Amino acid sequence: AEIKKFNCATDIADITSNGTQIILPEDDTKSVQQPATKEDFVIAPNPTEGLFTIDFTLEKNEKIFIQLFDINGNIVLTLPDLKRADTGYKIDIGNLTDGVYILKGYTSLGRLIIKKLIKF
User: Fold this and answer.
1) Structure confidence by residue, pLDDT tens digits, 23-82
2) Which member of 18, 58, 62, 109 has the greatest number of CB atoms within 10 A?
Protein backbone atom coordinates (compact mmCIF):
# COMPACT_ATOMS: atom_id res chain seq x y z
CA ALA A 1 0.00 0.00 0.00
CA GLU A 2 1.19 3.47 -0.82
CA ILE A 3 2.07 5.63 2.19
CA LYS A 4 1.37 9.35 2.02
CA LYS A 5 2.38 12.00 4.56
CA PHE A 6 -0.53 14.17 5.62
CA ASN A 7 -0.53 17.64 7.10
CA CYS A 8 -3.47 17.67 9.48
CA ALA A 9 -3.84 21.42 9.24
CA THR A 10 -4.77 21.14 5.57
CA ASP A 11 -5.76 17.52 4.84
CA ILE A 12 -8.86 16.94 6.99
CA ALA A 13 -11.62 15.32 4.94
CA ASP A 14 -15.20 16.59 4.88
CA ILE A 15 -18.18 14.48 5.82
CA THR A 16 -19.17 12.49 2.76
CA SER A 17 -22.71 12.00 1.55
CA ASN A 18 -23.01 8.66 3.39
CA GLY A 19 -22.12 10.19 6.78
CA THR A 20 -18.46 9.12 6.98
CA GLN A 21 -15.90 11.57 8.31
CA ILE A 22 -12.19 10.93 8.37
CA ILE A 23 -10.05 12.92 10.81
CA LEU A 24 -6.31 12.47 10.55
CA PRO A 25 -3.94 12.31 13.53
CA GLU A 26 -3.00 15.51 15.33
CA ASP A 27 0.71 14.72 14.94
CA ASP A 28 1.29 15.91 11.37
CA THR A 29 4.83 14.52 11.33
CA LYS A 30 3.54 10.96 11.41
CA SER A 31 3.16 9.17 8.11
CA VAL A 32 -0.18 7.38 7.86
CA GLN A 33 -2.00 5.46 5.21
CA GLN A 34 -4.32 7.06 2.73
CA PRO A 35 -7.53 7.69 4.71
CA ALA A 36 -10.36 5.22 4.39
CA THR A 37 -12.85 5.70 1.60
CA LYS A 38 -16.58 5.42 2.13
CA GLU A 39 -16.40 1.76 1.04
CA ASP A 40 -13.74 0.95 3.67
CA PHE A 41 -16.20 1.14 6.60
CA VAL A 42 -19.82 0.06 6.12
CA ILE A 43 -22.73 -0.16 8.58
CA ALA A 44 -25.72 -2.14 7.31
CA PRO A 45 -28.59 -1.88 7.65
CA ASN A 46 -28.65 1.76 8.62
CA PRO A 47 -31.21 2.72 9.92
CA THR A 48 -31.52 -0.43 12.02
CA GLU A 49 -34.06 -1.95 14.39
CA GLY A 50 -31.16 -3.13 16.54
CA LEU A 51 -29.10 -5.77 14.73
CA PHE A 52 -26.54 -4.48 12.24
CA THR A 53 -23.20 -5.46 10.75
CA ILE A 54 -20.06 -3.38 10.58
CA ASP A 55 -17.63 -4.29 7.85
CA PHE A 56 -14.31 -2.57 7.30
CA THR A 57 -11.07 -2.86 5.41
CA LEU A 58 -7.83 -2.77 7.38
CA GLU A 59 -4.21 -3.39 6.55
CA LYS A 60 -2.79 -6.82 7.48
CA ASN A 61 -1.69 -5.98 11.05
CA GLU A 62 -3.97 -3.00 11.63
CA LYS A 63 -6.57 -3.08 14.43
CA ILE A 64 -9.56 -0.88 15.11
CA PHE A 65 -11.08 0.22 18.42
CA ILE A 66 -14.78 1.08 18.06
CA GLN A 67 -17.02 3.08 20.38
CA LEU A 68 -20.72 3.88 20.02
CA PHE A 69 -21.97 7.13 21.55
CA ASP A 70 -25.52 8.26 22.23
CA ILE A 71 -26.67 11.73 21.22
CA ASN A 72 -25.53 13.11 24.60
CA GLY A 73 -21.96 11.88 24.09
CA ASN A 74 -22.19 8.93 26.50
CA ILE A 75 -20.34 5.76 25.49
CA VAL A 76 -22.93 2.97 25.16
CA LEU A 77 -20.76 0.28 23.52
CA THR A 78 -17.03 -0.42 23.21
CA LEU A 79 -15.42 -2.98 20.88
CA PRO A 80 -11.64 -3.01 21.45
CA ASP A 81 -8.91 -4.32 19.14
CA LEU A 82 -10.95 -5.71 16.27
CA LYS A 83 -9.08 -7.18 13.32
CA ARG A 84 -10.09 -7.84 9.75
CA ALA A 85 -12.96 -10.29 9.42
CA ASP A 86 -14.24 -11.87 6.24
CA THR A 87 -17.86 -11.57 7.32
CA GLY A 88 -17.81 -8.34 9.34
CA TYR A 89 -19.01 -8.05 12.93
CA LYS A 90 -22.66 -8.40 13.93
CA ILE A 91 -23.73 -5.97 16.65
CA ASP A 92 -27.04 -5.97 18.54
CA ILE A 93 -28.18 -2.68 20.07
CA GLY A 94 -31.80 -3.78 20.45
CA ASN A 95 -31.66 -2.89 24.15
CA LEU A 96 -30.81 0.77 23.41
CA THR A 97 -33.32 3.58 23.03
CA ASP A 98 -34.39 4.54 19.51
CA GLY A 99 -32.44 7.53 18.20
CA VAL A 100 -29.26 8.74 16.58
CA TYR A 101 -25.90 7.28 17.59
CA ILE A 102 -22.34 8.11 16.57
CA LEU A 103 -19.93 5.26 15.88
CA LYS A 104 -16.23 6.14 16.08
CA GLY A 105 -13.49 3.82 14.91
CA TYR A 106 -9.89 4.51 15.92
CA THR A 107 -7.31 2.50 13.95
CA SER A 108 -3.84 1.52 15.09
CA LEU A 109 -2.49 3.56 12.14
CA GLY A 110 -3.96 6.74 13.58
CA ARG A 111 -7.14 7.10 11.53
CA LEU A 112 -10.47 8.13 13.04
CA ILE A 113 -13.62 7.10 11.19
CA ILE A 114 -16.95 8.57 12.25
CA LYS A 115 -20.34 7.21 11.15
CA LYS A 116 -23.91 8.12 12.06
CA LEU A 117 -26.17 5.21 13.03
CA ILE A 118 -29.94 5.48 13.39
CA LYS A 119 -31.90 3.03 15.54
CA PHE A 120 -35.70 2.94 15.22
Assistant:
1) 444 444 444 444 555 567 899 999 999 999 999 888 888 899 999 999 999 999 999 989
2) 58
